[in-house]
From TrEMBL:
Keywords in alphabetical order: ATP-binding, Cell membrane, Membrane, Nucleotide-binding, Transport
All copies of domain ABC transporter, residue ranges: 6-254
Location within or outside the cell: Cell inner membrane
PROSITE patterns: ABC_TRANSPORTER_1 (PS00211), ABC_TRANSPORTER_2 (PS50893)
Family, similarity comment: Belongs to the ABC transporter superfamily.
Protein name: ABC-type dipeptide transporter
Amino acid sequence: MSLLDVNHLDVRFALRNGDIQALRDVSFSLDRGERLGIVGESGAGKSVAAFSLLNLISKPGYIAGGSIRFDGQELIGQSERALRHIRGHRISMIFQDPMMTLNPVLSIGDQMVECLKAHRRISTHEARGIALHKLVQVQIPSPEARLDQYPHELSGGMRQRVIIAIALLLDPDIIIADEPTTALDVTIQAEIMALLLSLCEKHNVGLILITHDLGVVSQVTQRMLVMYAGRVIEEGPTREIINDPQHPYTQGLMNALPQMATPGSRLNQIPGSMPSLDNLPDGCAFHPRCHFAMRSDGQRRQACYEHVPGFVTSGNCRVACHMVSEMLGYERIPAEETTS
């Protein structure tokens, strides 16, 4: 059994004009010590999927259906008290902006001690010792001095290292990293990701990395999910997807990388933009931007316009695409019958 199993997750936001479905039938799993990447454009549902795991979705959002099982325990429907034992203790989260996570009026040491004492019955002296050890692990220079400093006294890279140290404080089983290097320059990004990878491997911690950077995903993760308009559209081993993407959207993401363009020419791009969740097209949500939705004879590929594609297996990957189904000679599996 996997450490984390997510099946048919459905997340909605209740608005005046009706519910908007932010996640549709999302399923994936994570083994102990495994590293999983979730990629896609802004608005694809990556962060909503991550926040759902710990029921951190703000109202009017709510989990409308599905199952989230962690170490055999169903998390959906758990009390706030039970979830507090899971959050930060067994599943930690690293957010995009350290300054939104760290309290500006408390020292780094006070915040780390507070986190430890919220979950363990230990003295302040013991908690400071553990906090110091974690700062050493994330390679912060002069860690003793950092304990008494405030967030504004540290650089962006230092703050992100502190956030990683806090995430590791209670020796979690899973770390969810939501765009952990967005605000950092390229050199610091590489250092932070190398550090996170090393720590996860050393302590056998599972990692869910949410990012739009396919380069980072290819270097850090073992498996990846590609999301579009609230739905997983491709899943499989990272190396296999990067080397041979099957879904037209994944192909578009790969072709949009700067190194894929001829020097001096315009960068490749996927035409159009992601549809609004309150106005999704019929059939495959990607079909308005997909050149495979039209056949070579100029006729519409009707299935793309009329039916939500189910998953088919291509190599070691699962792909939700009618075009791939036809190429492999598979019959379309209705979306409601697909499983993880």
